[in-house]
Write a structure and sequence with these properties.
The complex is a heterodimer of chains A (263) and B (64). By secondary structure, chain A is an alpha+beta fold. Chain A has helices spanning 12-16, 40-52, 58-65, 71-86, 109-121, 129-133, 135-140, 151-177, 181-194, 199-211, 215-232, 239-245, 253-256, and strands at 4-5, 19-22, 28-31, 34-36, 56-57, 93-96, 99-102, 106-108. Classes of the chains: A alpha+beta (263), B alpha+beta (64).
Chain lengths: 263, 64
């Protein structure tokens, strides 16, 4: 096991604050101030409990993590995973009889990011310093556990994807309204990057360009989207997006730019 | 013990409201999650989704 010391911890109270589980972008765990390398089974156990976010019966945990094993083997694998976690420093899992849950002292980055996303989607959301400096955009740009293919991860990953796409669009619109065009464009580009076919993300990006007076950028973006839709789906952008970009229904976006190469 | 290959197919379906042809789907297939690279296909017709699923199952059946 390789461990990198990332912080000094002098008191139990301080160390309890330093359990941090990161699921966005990649898996990592900092327990009692130390970055930990975990066995795959222990990693999956922590992730499952973090994603479920409530107590689970041991039998349900074992059945979820080892669906192809019989009950005895799955139970043994779970005991082994718990034992290995116990050697990782700090209490990460609460064991209460037949129930397991993530210890409340473990902070999970996904939960914090979800709270940020929901804040942005509230009607009365105000821009925070993190929104203005790009930190929120960076957080919302991260996928949940890319490369994990367990059913229970994929469903959560898709739910997070939907939430962050909506939140990135909302963030971009709020930044545009505040006149912070560069930050607004970056948030919109992050939404476009996460789902290039999504029309609402393109719409938000085009609004950013129009808000700062860059009509040529808006037209160029419409052209990119039009070519993507034609090439991959054989369909056209909606009349609503066409109207937003100021593109006539019969005039290709390319010709509006007088021969400029659209990329 | 040799590892069993596990194929994965994920279909994401949504509607682009406002478009005259609103149906959209992206289909992500991986012949074996342990080794193969995912392939993503985007379509705008429900029948194309059905065809993609059929091709995937046939591929998995041939490789097993």
């Amino acid at each position: 096991m390789t461990e990198a010391q990332v912080a000094d911890v002098n008191t139990p109270a301080a160390s309890a604050q330093l359990h941090r589980l990161s699921l966005l972008g990649d898996f990592s765990l900092v327990a009692t101030g130390v970055e930990r390398s975990l066995a795959a089974s222990s990693r999956r156990l922590l992730v499952l409990l973090a994603l479920i976010g409530r107590r689970m019966r041991r039998s349900a945990v074992a059945g979820t993590l080892w669906p192809n094993a019989d009950d005895v083997r799955a139970g043994a694998s779970l005991r082994s995973a718990l034992l290995r976690l116990g050697h990782s420093g700090g209490q990460l899992v609460c064991v209460n009889g037949t129930l397991l849950s993530l210890d409340p002292t473990v902070r999970v980055d996904l939960r914090e990011a979800q709270a940020e996303a929901r804040r942005l989607l509230a009607d009365d959301a105000m821009l925070s310093p993190a929104d203005r400096c790009g930190e929120t955009c960076r957080l919302l740009s991260l996928e949940l556990l890319p490369g994990w293919y367990d059913d229970w991860v994929l469903i959560e990953a898709e739910a997070w994807r939907q939430l962050r796409l909506h939140a990135l669009e909302a963030l971009s619109l709020r930044l545009t309204a505040a006149g912070m065009h560069a930050a607004a464009i970056l948030a919109a580009l992050a939404a476009v990057s996460a789902d290039p076919l999504r029309e609402s993300a393109r719409s938000v990006l085009i609004r950013c360009y129009l808000a700062e007076g860059n009509r040529s950028d808006a037209l160029r973006e419409f052209g990119r989207y039009q070519r993507l839709l034609r090439g991959s789906l054989g369909v056209e952008p909606s009349p609503r997006l066409r109207a937003l970009a100021g593109v006539g229904s019969s005039v290709p976006a390319q010709s509006r730019l007088h021969g400029e190469i659209l990329r | 013990m040799p590892r069993e290959p596990v194929g994965l197919l994920i279909i994401r379906v949504w509607m682009e409201h406002g478009s005259p042809e609103p149906f959209r789907a992206t289909i992500r297939t991986t012949a074996d999650v342990g080794s193969a690279t995912p392939v993503t296909l985007s379509v705008a017709e429900p029948d194309e989704v059905v065809s993609a699923v059929r091709r995937f199952i046939q591929q998995v059946a041939q490789n097993s």
